[in-house]
Amino acid sequence: GAMENWGLLTYREAYLLSDPLETSSQFQQIIAYILSHEIAHMWYGNLVTNDWWDVLWLNEGFARYYQYFLTNEVEGMGFDIRFVPEQVHTALLSDSSNNPHPLTNPGVGSPRSVSAMFSTLTYNKGAAVIRMTEHLLTKQVHDQGLAQYLKTNQFKTAKPIDLFNALRDAGMQHGAFNNYGPTFDFVEYYKSWTEQAGHPVLNVDINHTTGQMTIQQRRFNINTGYSLQNTLYVIPVTFTSEFDYNFQNTKPTHIIKDAVTVIDRDAYGDYWTIFNIQQTGFYRVNYDEYT
């Protein structure tokens, strides 16, 4: 329906013309997000171009991300709350098969393999991981890191490490990682989500007597429950509990990267606890039967 270009964005006429008396609300929303998607490509794709097709998510992930959140800044169409069911959930489903491709997919070369990269994972998962990272850094820090990435790499091609370094530098400058301990490595975090296929499910077992929460991560498979591959991810964790609930603070409180991690809930008793606030993290959660 549309195509970004170096100097001129092109659209089908139907995706530009809107008659308030004739055009449905749904189609007006389609027009808005197609406009946003292609405008985003003027920076992510044209000003800075992905180095090769194997990292196409650097273009399409950001365009899909801004398709929702740029449009949401302009029009009150609820694009921010639509992102989870329309993008995160569809990406989780595609990413649950036996052999999903990673976002960064070495070996892409033939026309067929290039075409295969224009996938739900490249677009939807790419955008979901970008959104997860925004909440890890906070929007202000994330925006500053992206601005530096674009400035440093303008009129050139870029690789994922260029993005990672720009965001890491912004995070360190503003203390975004201060609560995650000296072993936290932002580049390792991002690589675990872009260079590895799949995503984890967190199995949470809460001891309501002590308040300790044991969290086991395993790669999810829709057919068998768990993948046979022993894949570990660097996971930003958010949770809130009944005794002091807050569903607005989506800045992760913990980073887990081991197969099993124990976190103190800071309270004991039969309180409900919910992980992955606003589903900002690209993972699933299971709870013990009692919880």
TrEMBL record:
Residues 1-170 form the Peptidase M1 membrane alanine aminopeptidase domain. Keywords: Aminopeptidase, Cell membrane, Glycoprotein, GPI-anchor, Hydrolase, Lipoprotein, Membrane, Metal-binding, Metalloprotease, Protease, Signal, Zinc. It is found in: Cell membrane. Its cofactor is Zn(2+). InterPro entries: Peptidase_M1 (IPR001930), Peptidase_M1_aminopeptidases (IPR050344), Peptidase_M1_dom (IPR014782), Peptidase_M4/M1_CTD_sf (IPR027268). Pfam families: Peptidase_M1. One of its GO terms (cellular component) is plasma membrane. GO terms for biological process: peptide catabolic process; proteolysis. It comes from the Eukaryota. It is a lipid-anchor; GPI-anchor. One of its GO terms (molecular function) is metalloaminopeptidase activity. Belongs to the peptidase M1 family. This is Class 3 aminopeptidase. It comes from Spodoptera frugiperda.
